[in-house]
């Protein structure tokens, strides 16, 4: 028996040592590019940073290879506005057969924001404004390989000096691309006026239309050759002085009111413009002087029937008030207005109506339950009018009670609460301080049934088990048909106490003990007073004694069988896992000879390990069967 156990234990030890050493056989370095690795130092070509997860494969599987990197540049690094520069990127390394995706940006957006400029390795862009520009590129290779690069040094774009060819104003230092082809000095211009042609010109002029004075305009615009200029009068185009308006002038003619003139010139492909304006002030006529229209009169109006300026009469004047504002809910308001001067009629509008007395008066209106606005308008003899308004706010009373329109359902306790209601008095504010109304009612009949708890433990004194009973559902008011059952008979547990076991007699004898007490007293149960035992001798005192079976009744053969079966059950799933890993190594090899060699070696070791495990189990069974055949009669 001992020889069999030792043999099984030795086979099991060999199997365990193989399983522990298997991973190191598969993953030992150095590993070529594309091989499976656990740390950087495993990798043959890149021992510093070559072991990495390339993406797209099983999780937590790392491979040897060159990490993805990128370099970037711009050429040339200095250009003039209107010229082009090429941003270039170059990818190095990366694992797998994927398409490289480039994403270029530069800071040419509003406020220096980065904007997209291309999605190829080399991007050429024309810059029409001066400044310093930074380029960035993001390089994506495969599902999880990405690297970015920022160009250094930056691209410098200088604006064009006067005399250089241009196409846009933004390309020129002066901001003026004259005629869309050459940078030139900024345009300048002035617009002035005088009472006499060739007289003293200024940017401020007042003429007297009574004396029939005229205004003469003169302008001087420079650096706008090739553009177009236009003169406008009070915003209306009044003529074009020509394409080169330098030191030109024009007679404005008779002016009867203040007038604004503007000269505006536009040139270049981008529509660059410059403008100057001047206001000619006209002195109006006083009262009783001849006139043709109101614009000729100073603080007066032109009486066309008489043909002279007249003083405008004053507008109607009066006061208009409302008493007791705010108005109490459902109350009245009294409106009062004074005697009206410079008026021929007064009329009420808004929330009241009708003609009202010029001599003054009052009206009482109501009752009011919401805000109202009252307007009184009085008109004078020359058509002028004056209006005053009074707005009356209304103070609502506090709510004091409820007007119930519907009641809620009747509860089991015989009460119901108002379901829908309004506050009283009508139009009140807030909510009543009293609670929502309730009233008594006759509850509906609801049949009860019993709901029981679980039975408790058996009472040894009464030999019964009890439980509690409650009525359900909550709020039921009709007793259950049957009475509640809250107890049942039971047999209590009988606990027996014994004296210590006696010594075991003989090599295959018995041992005995006596009963000392029962709990509860007198309970019914069978006492165990005798059992079989294995005889022996105490090694210290030499007196007969007994030993306890440490194997729980199992033979040594049975114990070894169970232990070996447990180890085999543990190792078989491990072998399956290694077969799966080996299969993945064949899949990811993709024809690579080095990778296929590693995968084949791993498959061989896994197969040998599986054969050892299964062979050990078969050999153990054969030994066990042989021993049983020899030892059994």
Could you describe the 3D structure shown?
- This protein has three helices and 47 strands.
- It has 633 residues and is α+β, with helices and mostly antiparallel strands.
- Among the domains are: 69-158, Immunoglobulin-like (Sandwich); 169-283, Immunoglobulins (Immunoglobulin-like, Sandwich); 320-393, Immunoglobulin-like; 556-631.
- The strands form 17 sheets. It has a five-stranded mixed β-sheet with strand order 17-23-22-19-20, with no helix packed on it. A four-stranded antiparallel β-sheet has the order 8-7-11-12, with no helix packed on it. Strands 30-29-32-33 form a four-stranded antiparallel β-sheet, with no helix packed on it.
- 19% of the residues are buried.
- Mean pLDDT is 80; it is low at 1-29 and 536-547.
In short:
This protein is an alpha+beta fold.
What tags apply to this protein structure?
633 residues, alpha+beta, Immunoglobulin-like, five-stranded mixed β-sheet, four-stranded antiparallel β-sheet, 3 helices, disordered N terminus
CATH architecture assignment of the domain at 169-283:
Sandwich
- General form: flat
**What does the main sheet amount to?**
5 strands, mixed
Structural class: alpha+beta
User: Which assembly state applies to the chains in this document?
Assistant: single chain
The helicity comes to 10-25%
Gyration radius from CA atoms, angstroms: 56 Å
Q: Which regions are unreliable across 5 or more consecutive residues at pLDDT < 50? A: 1-29, 536-547
User: For the largest beta sheet, what order do the strands appear in spatially?
Assistant: 17-23-22-19-20
Q: In whole angstroms, how far apart are the ends? A: 16 Å
Integer average pLDDT: 80
Which CATH C-level class of the domain at 169-283 is it? Mainly Beta
CATH superfamily of the domain at 169-283: Immunoglobulins
Helix count, per DSSP?
Answer: 3
CATH topology of the domain at 169-283: Immunoglobulin-like
Keywords: Membrane, Signal, Transmembrane, Transmembrane helix
Transmembrane segments: 570-590, 602-623
Pfam families: T4SS_pilin
InterPro entries: T4SS_pilin
